[in-house]
């Protein structure tokens, strides 16, 4: 099962969460893009994760795996945002860097 769509989904949900003032306030020293940029980037990353899953597994299984990986990514993000918000942003960046390398495995 390809994991790169799950990593991209985690980064997408992180961008969408950081577009909200509630989650943005816990990361004061970090310089973040504007809320609008983060929102657009989050939705584009979600579309990219769907395209990756469908391309790798086909339309029927790809959509099913994509929805499952989105659920896991969202649950992990909720837990990390309540526990260590800076770690969530770091893991999102690491996930985006690692996702292209996982595509070749």
What topology emerges from the helices and strands here?
Elements: H1 4-18, H2 21-24, H3 35-57, H4 59-83, H5 85-102
Helix pairs in contact: 1-3, 1-4, 1-5, 3-4, 4-5
Plain-language structure description:
The protein is 81% helix and 0% strand. Helix 1 runs antiparallel to helix 5 (85-102). The chain is elongated, with a radius of gyration of 14 Å. The protein contains five helices and no strands. It has a domain at 59-104. With 105 residues, it is mainly α. The mean pLDDT is 88. This is DUF3325 domain-containing protein. It comes from Caulobacter radicis. Keywords: Membrane, Transmembrane, Transmembrane helix. The chain crosses the membrane at residues 37-55, 60-81, 87-104.
Question: What attributes characterize this protein structure?
Answer:
5 helices, 105 residues, mainly alpha, single chain, 0% strand, 81% helix, transmembrane helix
CA gyration radius, whole angstroms:
14 Å
Profile the largest sheet.
Answer: none
- The class by helix and strand makeup works out as mainly alpha
Provide mean pLDDT, rounded: 88
Q: What's the overall geometry?
A: elongated
**Distance N terminus to C terminus?**
11 Å
Helix-strand string: HHHHH
Helix content: over 70%
Number of helices: 5
Beta fraction of the residues? under 5%
Short description:
Keywords: Membrane, Transmembrane, Transmembrane helix. With 105 residues, the chain is mostly helical.
């Amino acid at each position: 099962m390809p994991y790169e769509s799950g990593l991209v989904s985690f980064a997408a949900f992180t961008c969408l969460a950081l577009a909200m003032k509630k989650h943005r306030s816990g990361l004061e020293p970090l310089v973040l893009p504007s809320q609008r940029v983060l929102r657009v980037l989050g939705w584009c990353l979600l579309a990219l994760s769907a395209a990756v899953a469908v391309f790798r597994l086909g339309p029927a299984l790809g959509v099913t795996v994509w929805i499952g990986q989105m659920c896991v990514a969202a649950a992990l993000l909720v837990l990390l945002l309540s526990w260590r918000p800076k770690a969530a942003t770091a893991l999102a960046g690491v996930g985006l860097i690692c996702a292209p390398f996982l595509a070749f495995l």
